[in-house]
Amino acid sequence: MAATEPPAAWRTSSYSGANGDCVEVGCEPSAALVRDSEQPASPHLRFSPDSWNAFLAHRAATA
Which InterPro entries does this one have (predicted)? Predict the structure, then answer.
């Protein structure tokens, strides 16, 4: 039987706009998750830690 990970603790991204265009970010031991805050039951994106860190580094460099 495969081990299951605990559910992600979702938080609203600090880059989300005040107009309701919000994304939420969740962390699991083996992934970073992103979802639409207005549709939390819809599918979400899953990134490996390396991919997520590369995204954050690129975002910081181009902000």
Answer: DUF397
First to last CA, the chain: 44
How many CB atoms are located within 10 Å of the residue 63 CB? 6
Distances from the Cα of 53 to the Cα of 4, 31, 49, 57, angstroms? 23, 11, 6, 6
Predicted TM-score of the model (pTM): 0.72
> What pLDDT was estimated at residue 9?
84
Torsion-angle region of residue 20: left (phi > 0), alpha (psi -120 to 50) or beta? left
